[in-house]
Design brief:
Layout lengths: L3 H14 L6 E2 L2 E2 L17 E6 L5 E8 L5 E7 L5 E6 L1 E3 L2 E7 L6 E7 L2 E2 L4 E2 L14 E2 L36 E3 L22 E4 L1 H5 L13 H4 L2 H10 L3 E4 L3 E3 L3 H5 L10 E7 L11 H15 L3 E6 L16 H9 L24 H16 L5 E4 L2 H4 L11 H8 L7 E4 L18 E5 H11 L7 H7 L3 H4 L9 E3 L9 H4 L35 H20 L3 E5 L35 H16 L22 E4 L8 H5 L4 E6 L19 E6 L5 E4 L8 E7 L12 E3 L3 E4 L3 E7 L2
Parallel strand pairs: 14-15, 14-23, 15-18, 18-19, 19-20, 20-21, 21-22, 22-23
Antiparallel strand pairs: 1-2, 3-4, 4-8, 5-6, 5-9, 7-8, 9-13, 10-11, 12-13, 16-17, 24-25, 25-26, 26-31, 27-30, 28-29, 28-31
Length: 749
Amino acid sequence: MTSAAEQQSVAQEGAARAGRPAAVANGAPRAAPPTPPVWPGAPTPLGARFRVGPDGVAGTNFALWAAGAEAVRLCLFDERGRETRVRLTELTHEIWHGFVPGVMPGQRYGYRVDGRWDPWTGARWNPAKLLLDPYARAVDGEFSLPPDVYGHVRDWPEQHVADTVRDDRDSAPYVPKGVVVQDDDDWADDRRPKTPWADSVIYELHVRGFTRLHPDIPPELRGTYAGLAHPAAIAHLVKLGVTAVELLPVHQFAHEDHLLRRGLRNYWGYNSIGYFAPHAAYAASGTTGQQVGEFKRMVRALHAAGIEVILDVVYNHTAEAGELGPTLSLKGIDNRGYYRLQNDARRYADYTGCGNTLHVVQPQVLRLITDSLRYWVTEMGVDGFRFDLAAALARSMHDVDMLSPFLAVIAQDPVLRRMKLIAEPWDIGSGGYQVGAFPPLWTEWNDRYRDAIRDFWRGALPDVRDLGYRLSGSSDLYAWGGRRPYASVNFITAHDGYTLRDLVSYQGKHNEANGENNRDGSNDNRSWNCGAEGETDDERVRLLRRRQLRNLLTTLLLSTGVPMLVAGDELGRTQRGNNNAYCQDNEISWLDWSLLDDPAWRPLFDLTSRLIALRHRHPVLRRRAFFSGRAHSADGLRDLAWFTARGEEMTESDWYAPAATLAMYLSGRDIPGRDEQGAPITDDSFLAVLHAGDRPVSFVLPGPPWAERYEIVVDTAREEQEEPPGEIHRAGETLTMEGRSVLLLRVRD
């Protein structure tokens, strides 16, 4: 245990490094806070938990897994930043623990962990570095990244061995602290929407970017959890008709050094460091525990509006990067226990492109992840997760393994298996592309859907075989093992890449603002600028771009599977051609709400909300089972049929021939399943005609048994859509479709 003199020295040194004078009284340094007693406490639960201890004494139990450590010191910080260190002496099953009486909610803390410094074997303990508790449920302060925060001497002259030289400078003044949080919420008044997968429409948004410029949200709430909970924000979601928001990462994250050096910040948040803590910068109410309650109130407000909350989570890597990265938490607690290392244990296995990969096969790492997931469900109220680079989590020792410990644990967990689980089914390692391979219970981001739809509307598909699969639920990928069409999360855009408007406005990326000479971001965008690069005054180009947006959104919302929209695409949001805006915390990324009042863009929102409403009303557009393509009645009517522009059913050779037009018939008479009362499900039948050619085409409406008459419901050639009832046309009639347009017709027999 450190002496009072040592504690005083630590406080003075930390104050000096932070650029502020040490506290003095009558010309002499103030006495350091007294060292509190430490009782044995308990090894579970991990983290800091405020409770009533022996003899009714209130305090906090601290528990930290650090298997190879030689000593663990709990560091408590007062309101002036003065540090008090107490040693945890109890060790149970590799967990260091102790109960500290008198430590109340709001207390800031961290750890110093001692052990061998031997990077050649992967041992990187350094007690000079203050470490964030992996189980901290609130974090106060931000990471800055001066040399003091690195476990090694970052500026060592011989950089090829710099990571082997230990840096003994104190990092405490430059790193945030964990905060003790009180458990005071049982969610008794919350009602989860529990929207079935087939009925879901997902809306990917950024908490800060969605609310930062909203004119009807009070300025002090913009960019925060409270801002997203504001009635003005929720009203937009309700009017649009989405059933779930998928929040870009809200786990506490850190900014990368290379961004800070360029005066930028990590905006997206895919650089997690605290898996239990809501990112403090998104809190309007405070950062010493208030962010937890604010997040919960946001979830409640969304639930009350019938909207589920899905978190984009990053358990594949952390903000500590590789061997030359900072020492912030896990690296200093037990580097070999938490991270995958190469045969040369100085180096990290990197399946993520971010410098490190969590070693999910290790029981304690698997426990960290599943404890975090259950916490966000049971204590924070969320409804599901989208797993960033999920293939990295599914790796056993090296290869992706669909029987891996991570997937096996999720499959049997009574809490997690009932949540919405979405995989980004790839990583950057060998064999990492796993689209269609995840087991039942999981849905997947379907990038093959994205690519096929983009290619069709820019005229780059060699034939329409792939398009047919994508429109009808991607049975070639998901019709196995009991999976359903809603295993496919259909998307055309996501946070990573162009916005929908930029997809039809830019041929090449324009990422100059990122400071990397436009080298970052994908070069494979499958975009088409409609004849001019970027913004233009050419009205013909502008009209064509808006039509292409209508085509893309209509295709997405008529496709079988779960549609995912990106916030602002329904308004025509632009990032000015930046397809990698991860570091743009400014107007490039924030939602421009003035587009709602722009006569050129408001119709796009109206069409999107109308299509979503149509999808909600008609079960034939959100099937729970794959199409059979077979006739179920004597008249030969099938649940799914495909037609050429001649109004004739597609033949085998038609599927292999170049074509710019494809029609899809969806029968409402043959929908599998029954309603909640056991009655058969029936619906209207629809004919969707997609024409990607640049010239008008004559389309013949199919006759019996498909229909006698058709009513036009949507015509994307029109800027403004008519409300039903629309024009009525008889079977056999020839319609002239404008170039690059979609017709949706309802059978009116």
